[in-house]
């Protein structure tokens, strides 16, 4: 969902399958499974990924280089970084996530994160990597991104209108990014490594989902899965979900009972929704699934939970899916 999901699916397909999904949101095996059910389409354009050694420092690629050109990049008309008023009390990490979900200007949001990122603050660095991931395909070539969106609109497929709307939403929110900001996959990985080493559990989980864990030994991986389970952190649940799907097939004794199938990957993602991840119709999750892979609901008011049970889970599998989600987080059963 690259988030467990652009005109660069070919570029990001392998990384996305390994990413925590935000990237994460883009688990390829799940995308493929759902695409067969909802008829998604992607007009892809492959781009090169610079080797990590050739990249500038990931903590300054947007915030520092952006400050030098900020005066030439006007914020989109009417853009505001202020999230809607939240009645409930939020932790600092939750406030950062709310800002990411609701900001109309992610370039400005990334710049505001810059000082905390340079100081090594784990939550800010993790969210910085999510901005990079969300905007990467647009920033790689805004003109190509726009042409791809027009081409999708001209295909007049069942998902074209929804996909165009999602891609336009990404383009508007990422409008001030350019190729010079280097939102490459290698830079995203480098930023997540820094976040994980600083103490971000979601970043650490995403690296496992990208098959690039901080440590490769079995004890570390088993411990990480346990820490994610015990944390009940929605970002961490979603970030680790690609690894809990087909990638762990035949290794349930290693990864736990909710692992090894495309539905177990979905179960971790639905659990993340239940734990507080924004899974609403216009959320980052729904937008990236649709914009990146054509995995779009035909009902614009449908959230991720309803979409999954409508399009990806057969009626006979509803109880099994509910049991898996409840096994991860407990709570009220979802009935369909």
Give the termini distance in whole angstroms: 22 Å
Q: How would you sum up the major sheet?
A: none
Helix content, binned percent = 55-70%
User: What is the count of β-strands?
Assistant: 0
Counted by DSSP, the helix tally is: 17
Q: What is the 3D form?
A: globular
Low-confidence stretches: 1-21, 23-72, 77-87, 331-336
Using the CA coordinates, give the radius of gyration. 18 Å
List the topology elements.
Elements: H1 9-18, H2 28-38, H3 63-69, H4 92-102, H5 106-118, H6 122-140, H7 142-155, H8 160-173, H9 185-198, H10 201-209, H11 218-231, H12 234-240, H13 252-255, H14 262-275, H15 284-293, H16 304-311, H17 318-329
Helix pairs in contact: 3-5, 4-6, 5-6, 6-7, 6-9, 7-8, 8-15, 9-10, 10-11, 10-12, 12-14, 14-17
Describe the structure.
The protein has 17 helices and no strands. The protein has 336 residues and is an all-alpha fold. The chain has one domain (9-329). Helix 3 packs across helix 5. Residues 1-21, 23-72, 77-87 and 331-336 have low confidence and may be disordered.
